[in-house]
Amino acid sequence: MATHIDPVCGMEVGEDTAFKTLYKGKVYYFCSRQCKEAFDKDPERYLKGGPRGMPHH
Ligand SMILES: [Zn+2]
User: How far is the CA of 50 from the centre of ligand 1 (A)?
Assistant: First the structure.
């Protein structure tokens, strides 16, 4: 099974269980809805700055 790095918290997430969002034609994968919502609010922050870590991990 393919895994992806959650761009918000840096966790590895499995494709089947991940929350997904489409941004600029690319799919991003998240460990949780909180991470997805954080990314949706400000995608560039995570794409430029890298994973920040989230309090719920
Ligand atoms: Zn996450």
Answer: 12
